[in-house]
Amino acid sequence: MSRLHLTFGCGSLKLAGTLDMAPGKTGLLWVSGGNEIRSGAFSGQSHIAANIAGAGFPVFRFDRRGVGDSEGENRGFQSSQGDIEAAIHAFQAMAPQLDAIVAFGNCDAASALMLAQGATCDRLVLSNPWTIENENESEEPAETMPASAIRARYLEKLASPREVWRLISGGVDLRKLAKGLSKSVTKANSPNGLAEDMRAGIGSFEGEVRFLIAESDRTAQAFLDVWDPADQRISRCKGASHAYVEPHARDWLVHQLLDALRS
C-alpha cells in the first residue's frame, strides 16, 4: 500500500485529495462531513483508509471547496454534489482498474450523498445522516434535542448513582428536568423538508444502501426520529459516539466498510 497526495479540478478550482492505492477493483470514496478535513479528527480517517487499503481496496479522500487544502468557498453540504462528482472522476482516473465505487459519508456527508442521489456511485454506506433543520445552538438542550435523544440521556443519568444523589439532594434544576421529561414523551418528529429531500434522493438510487447508526449519537437519534426505524438497511453500534472513536466502534466501522466493499 502507498499513499499519494494530489490536486484535481472542480470547475476552475483545485481541490486536494489523498489516494491510498491498492489493487482492488472496488474502491472506497470517503466523503468528509461538516468542515472536517480529509485526514479526520486526530487522523482517524487517515488511519482507517490505510487499514482498508491494506485489505486490498483503494481509498480516495478529499477536501471539498473551502475546506482544508482546497480552493473556493465553503457553501455547505447541500452544495457539495459537484465536489463529490469531481472526486469520483479523479478517483477513476488515478485508479483505472476500478469497476465499482462504494461511497461512505458520516453526518452531513451522508446527507449530501442522499441529496445527490448517490452521485453515480455503485453502493452507499450512510452513517448518522444529518436531518436537523434550523437548529439554534443558543437554546437549552431540551429545546433542540430529539425526544429519543432526551430519553437516552435521562436513562443514562438514572443509571448513575451520582446523578440519582444529585436529584435526591436538590442538585438538579427541577424546571429544566420537567421540561426535558415533557419533551421526552412526545411523539417522534414529523419528517422535515431536509429529511424528505433526502428520502426522495435515495429513493431513486438503484444500488445497495447501508445505514450505520452510532447509538450514543444525538445526530443518529434525530435521524431515527424522522426515518423508519424498522428499515432493514439499518445497522447499529451500541455505545458508539458520532465519530466512532471508541475502539470497539472503530473496529465495527471498519468491518462494515469492508463488508460493503466485498459485497
Please count the beta strands (DSSP E, at least 2 residues each).
8
Strand residues, percent: 15-25%
Relevant CATH superfamily of the largest domain: Alpha/Beta hydrolase fold, catalytic domain
Biggest pleated-sheet summary: 8 strands, mixed
Description:
An 8-stranded mixed sheet has the order 1-2-4-3-5-6-7-8, sandwiched between helices. With 263 residues, it is α/β, with parallel strands linked by helices. The two termini are 22 Å apart. It has 2 domains: 2-133 and 192-262, Rossmann fold (3-Layer(aba) Sandwich), CATH 3.40.50; 141-184, no CATH class. The model is unreliable at 136-143 (pLDDT under 50). Helices cover 39% and strands 19% of the residues.
Topology (SSEs and partners):
Elements: E1 2-10, E2 13-21, E3 26-31, H1 44-54, E4 59-62, H2 81-94, E5 100-106, H3 108-115, E6 123-127, H4 141-144, H5 147-158, H6 161-168, H7 174-184, H8 193-203, E7 208-214, H9 218-225, E8 234-237, H10 247-262
Parallel strand pairs: 3-4, 3-5, 5-6, 6-7, 7-8
Antiparallel strand pairs: 1-2, 2-4
Helix pairs in contact: 3-8, 5-7
Descriptive terms for the model:
Rossmann fold, 263 residues, 2 domains, 8 strands, 10 helices, alpha/beta
Concise summary:
39% of the residues lie in helices and 19% in strands.
